[in-house]
Amino acid sequence: MATYGVILLSGGLDSTTVAAYARARIEHLTAMTFYYGQSHGKEVECARKIAEVLAVSHQVVDVSFFGQVAWDSALTNPDLFPLPKDRSIAEMGSGIPVTYVPLRNTIFLTLAAALLESEMLNAIEGQGVAPKGMEASLFMAANAIDYSGYPDCRPEYFQRMAETLNYGSKLWTHYRVPIQVETPIIRLTKGDIVRMGMELRAPLEYTWSCYLGDPAPCGKCDSCILRAKGFREAGVPDPLLRRLGVR
Amino acid sequence: MATYGVILLSGGLDSTTVAAYARARIEHLTAMTFYYGQSHGKEVECARKIAEVLAVSHQVVDVSFFGQVAWDSALTNPDLFPLPKDRSIAEMGSGIPVTYVPLRNTIFLTLAAALLESEMLNAIEGQGVAPKGMEASLFMAANAIDYSGYPDCRPEYFQRMAETLNYGSKLWTHYRVPIQVETPIIRLTKGDIVRMGMELRAPLEYTWSCYLGDPAPCGKCDSCILRAKGFREAGVPDPLLRRLGVR
C-alpha cells in the first residue's frame, strides 16, 4: 500500500484529532503548519510537539504574505478590524463572521496539495510508474457545526476543491492518482471531536486552543469556552489542564 | 460600472499584453507579481515599470515558501533538477515538461482571488450591499499553444478553478458576485500575442523574456527564441531591442 497524505495541523484540538485519524491510515504522512504572524507562536510549538509524538514529518511554512493578500479580515489584520471583545459563541452562527479570511481554506489546501504532489511525483518518477493502489489524501479539520457560516467549510466546497486540484495536477492528469480532500470531523460537535480524539489516543494534552499565548489557557476567550464545552459534553477532563496542573 | 480585476503580471510579453487588455475594460485593476527567488529580480523590476506605465496599482508578493512547498520542479529547485541546457522548443510539446511546478497556477490564482475578494469585500462592506453590475475578474496569461502539456493551462481546468473560488468565497456565496477567470490569450500563437499587444499599445518595450538577467537579452535561450519567433510571425521589430539599442 502506497498511501500518502498531508494533514493541516494547527496545534489545536480538532486538527490534532484528525492527525491521529490520518496517522492510523496513511503510510507517508506529513503534518503541515502555517505560520503567519499570529499573535503568538505557541500553536506552532504545540504542532511541532504533536507531530513528534505522532511520529510524522512536519513542515512549518511561513506564509507571512497572508496579511498582504487576504487582507480584509480581523484575523489577518487585527488592527484594521478589531475582534469584538464581547462576541459570544451564539453570535458565531449568524452570517459570515468577521474572522472570515478570504479564501483561507482554498489557499491552505492548495499549498498542502502542492507539497503532497511534490512528494508523490518524486516517489513515482524514481520508479517511472505510479504503484498500484497509490492513494493521495489531504486531511483538514474543517467543521460545519460549531463554526457554521464559513463558505469554505461546506462539503460542497470541498468536493469542488478536490476536483480542481486534480484537474490542475500532473498527479491526476498524467498518473491518474486522484487527490482526495478528507474532512472527517465536518459533521461532529465539539463533544464528538473530543470523544474521537480520546478514542484515537490523540495527544490532546499538547493541543492549544486559547487565543492568548500565556503559560496556561485563559479559560475565558471564545476558544477556551468552546473547548471546555467539548470536554464537558464528552464527560472527560481536559488532559491539557491536568498536564499543566491547573484547575 | 463597478468592475474589479487582478492581473497576474510577470513582466513578460504575454502577461503585459493581457494587462493592457484588462486595463481597457476594468475600472479597479491591480497587477500582482510574485517573487520567489527567481534567478534574477529583473522581471519584478520590469513588472513594476509596466504597472506604472499602465497606471494600475501593483502588489509584489514574496512567495519564497514556494520552493519548500511545490518543491519537485526544475523551476523551484534548479539544484535538484537542472534544466536541460539543450532543450529545444519542439521538445516542450512532448508530455509534461520538467518545468512543471506542482499546482503553480492554482496557487497563483487563489492568491490573486484572495486579493481581489479582499478589495471587493472592503468596497462592498463600506456600503452594505454589492453595487448593481459589479464584476470580478482574474486575468491570467495562460497559453495552451506554445507551452502545451501543463495541466493547469487547459480551459477545462480554469473553468473548475473559477467554480471552486466562488464556492469558497463570501463574495459569491453571500453577495452573489461571481469571480471570473479570464485567459484571453489561451488559444493564441506567439505571433498573435505580439499582434494583440501592439494593437492594444501594451508597453512591450519594457517586457523581459530572457532566462538570464543581463542588461540585454541573450537571444539564445528558449524564451528569447520563442519571443523572436513571435515578432517575426507578427512582422514587427521587437520594441525592447530598439529601446536597448541592440541589433
What is the element string of chain A, with H for helices and E for strands?
EHEHEHHHEHHEHHH
Q: Determine and state the CATH class of chain A.
A: Alpha Beta
Helix-residue proportion of chain A? 40-55%
CATH-scheme architecture of chain A: 3-Layer(aba) Sandwich
Class inferred from helices and paired strands of chain A: alpha/beta
Q: What is the number of independent domains of chain A?
A: 1
Q: Unreliable segments of chain A (pLDDT under 50, ≥5 consecutive)?
A: 86-94
How many DSSP helices of chain A? 10
- The end-to-end span of chain A amounts to 45 Å
Quaternary: homodimer
Fraction of residues in β-strands of chain A = 5-15%
Strand tally of chain A, please? 5
**Rg over alpha carbons of chain A:** 18 Å
In the CATH scheme, what's the topology name of chain A? Answer: Rossmann fold
Largest sheet composition of chain A: 5 strands, parallel
Biggest sheet strand line-up of chain A: 3-2-1-4-5
